[in-house]
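Quick start: read one record
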Amino acid sequence: MESAGYVVKGFASAEEFLESGSIRGAACLILDVQLPGITGLQLQYELAAADNRVPIVFVSGHGTGANRETAVRQGAAGFLAKPFRREELLNIIGAAIRR
């Protein structure tokens, strides 16, 4: 991501991200469905409930139809099942930020 010109911050969990206050400066979130503690889908739901519209792109090894459908229904900008190509991720992130 950095080699594509993006400023990146990583977090060990959704809780760590929420406690950091970084949501205010985020242009896009890249989440996995399975995270320690709060799942990516739960974080997406909580952000939407708080009326936070930051674009979310999911990348997941748990790309089941149900997970994908839930993420998209809740407003995900994209959902990529692992493995995926770098270009796919960059295209989805670029489109999400432009929205």
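Residues 2-98 form a domain with the Rossmann fold fold (CATH 3.40.50.2300).
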